[in-house]
Amino acid sequence: MKKKIIALLMTTVTCLSLAACSGSSSGADSESAPAEETTDEAAESGSAKLIMATNAEFPPYEYHDNDQIVGIDAEIAEALAKEIGAEVEIEDIAFDSIIPEVTSGKADFGMAGMTVTEDRKKSVNFTDTYASAKQVIIVTEDSDIASPDDLEGKVVGVQTGTTGDIYISDELGDDAVERYAKGMEAVQALSQNKIDAVVIDNEPAKVYVSENEGLKILDTAYAEEEYAIAVALDNTELLDKLNAALKTLKDNGTIDEIVGKYIKTE
Ligand code: GLN
User: Fold this and answer.
1) Whole-angstrom Cα distance, residue 52 to residue 89?
2) Every domain of the chain and the residues it spans
3) pTM over 0.90
């Protein structure tokens, strides 16, 4: 039903723009021709099915629960798609493949607790932000590392291609970084004293620390960040739709409700 309404709206928009372009189209021709255009356009822009690229190794934002991918991002994406009149298909890939997947058009958007950065903005457009986050430092309970400054000269585990990876490589040099495909693997290496600390997003950090004994999160964060959805630079149509839908879901409390299901505030 909703799809039908959107298809009708799109027909109207197409008619308007065609009329505006040709200037002279009138009568039966302009009424029948755009209808076909609309069908093609809908198919091309993939409005019925949106492919979301993510890396489902990032609880509570996206993770595997049996054979399902669940989490805050998965649920927000579902709600956004519903607003737009589309369906989401989740593609689970390496974190550092998400932006290439979006820029190449293989995925419609990337949603993975992804931090907005100036550098990434050169490759993709970001929607409005939907969550605040932090990069935090995880250490062993008996560690002599008490603040970000103490990381100097230490070996820090990160997830490949994440902002943690970027900050630590930039500030401490490549030799200071140990890269892992999954954040959990970095945390396990820390548990086994193979590395000195892990720099990772605060919410997954809480999950990992609760699942591994003898670890703690330092009070002083490494960096403050914002999460948003990545869309191809030329797909402003989807960007606008996602932003409008995000606004609706923020205003009507859906986003807070979803976040509240996964993150319990102390
Ligand atoms: N927020 C971090 C980033 O965007 C990590 C995201 C992730 O590992 N899924 O780089």
Assistant:
1) 6
2) 48-130+228-262, 134-224
3) no
